Amino acid sequence: LIAGGLAFVESGSKASAGAAESEPAANFTRQGERITIPQHSPLRQRIAVQTVTSLDAAHALELPAQVEADPARTINILPPVAGKVLELKVGLGDRVRKGQLLLVMTSGDFAQATADVQKARDALQLAKRILERQRGVQQAGAGAAKDLEQAESAYVQAQAEFARADTRLKSLSAGGATAADSGGQRLNLVAPASGSITALAIGPGQAANDPNAVLMTIANLDTVWITASVPENLLASIKKGQPASISLPAYPGEQFHGSVAFVSDVLQPDTRRALVRISVPNTDGKFKPNMFANASFAVAQASAPVIPPSALLMNNENTTVFVEVAPWTFVRRTIETGNEEDGSVRIQKGLLVGDRVVIKGGVLLND
Asked: CA–CA separation, 296 vs 59, rounded Å?
């Protein structure tokens, strides 16, 4: 009986041990806020932990923009005098060279100004000859002093009249106008600079009587502006001379480079944004005014901890991570994130460089 009883006890002990071995190991245990993964837990094969590092690279600030012609290289052609267009030598979109003939017009005012110069020049030459004769007579001991004085006065007045007429004619020709004949009946308008005809508002036979009406616009597009609108809170990050990268929907995959040429001192009242213009070479003509673009600026940032996006977990309305506080022991920590760049998320609050966080399988530790 004793032997049988011992056998029974031994058999029962073995059965209990087998039952214990067949029970599955717990994935993790929780003590307060601490979660521990036991040695034989299968989670140890499914969870990866990484040390928090730092990043001090510049952040890319990308803003919408558009292509504009450089105002300093854009010229509006106005009628120098009232008249009528006889011939139009260029069309919309044409490229013109400096000095190239744009149009021919007839103008009574220009003809009058030309005639005034010719009359003033002739009167000046006559007054000069009279003065020289009078001086000769005076030196010979003949002639009255008042005659010499009168000749000198007439000469000074003739000089002044010629200067006035010549200045008026030159002012009428300041926009590139030249007389096509000796009487000034036909007036040629030539291009004051090289560029493209970007606007045209005149045609043959049309009257040009308004001196403020633009006949055409010539824009030199060898260099263009990329104009971006920068929000007020980001304006301190943009400086004159700062490099910028440009991308355009018209040229997918291509990057262009320029530098900030101008930062507006005044915000746009409706958008609360400041205009920032980037000067970009355009010798190949790819940039066309009014094209949409994106401007990217490198904004310096202070060094900050970074982690992979896979480490982030959403807990209610908070962003959290699991931090290792002891080997295979973790606690959940709420953090504040910043910008994401180069596959890493900057951490503004909640983590320090050197902390170890779960970057893979953290969701398996959720309740």
From this structure: 10
Give 168's contacts (C-beta < 8 A, 6+ positions apart): 113, 116
pLDDT, residue 175, reads 55
Distance CA 306, CA 339 (A): 10
Predicted confidence at residue 218, as pLDDT, reads: 94
CA angle 24, 28, 32 (to 5 degrees): 140
Spell out the SS3 assignment of 189-221: EECCCCEEEEEECCCCCCEECCCCCCCEEEECC
Residue with tokens 């307060």, as numbered in its chain:
32
Q: How far apart are CA 31 and CA 51, in angstroms?
A: 24
Beta-carbon count within 10 A of 283 CB: 8
Q: Which residue ranges of the chain lie beneath pLDDT 50? A: 1-24
pLDDT score recorded for residue 6: 35
> What is the layout of strands, in order, in the sheet containing 95-96?
74-77, 216-219, 195-200, 95-96
Other beta carbons within 10 Å of 222: 15
At residue 23, the pLDDT reads 45
SS (H, E, C) 102-154: EEEEECHHHHHHHHHHHHHHHHHHHHHHHHHHHHHHHHCCCCCHHHHHHHHHH
Please tell me the distance from the alpha carbon of residue 324 to that of residue 330, in angstroms, as a whole number: 4
pLDDT of residue 15: 41
Residue 206 sits at the vertex; the CA angle it makes with 205 and 209, to the nearest 5 degrees, is: 135
CB distance 347 to 359 below 8 Å: no
pLDDT of residue 2: 34
CA distance 367 to 365: 6
Is residue 189 within 8 A of residue 84, CB to CB? The reply is no
pLDDT of residue 173: 66
Measured from the Cβ of residue 353, the count of other Cβ atoms closer than 10 Å reads 14
Residue 147: what pLDDT? 83
Report which of 126, 132, 124, 125 is spatially closest to residue 148, judged by C-alpha positions.
Answer: 132
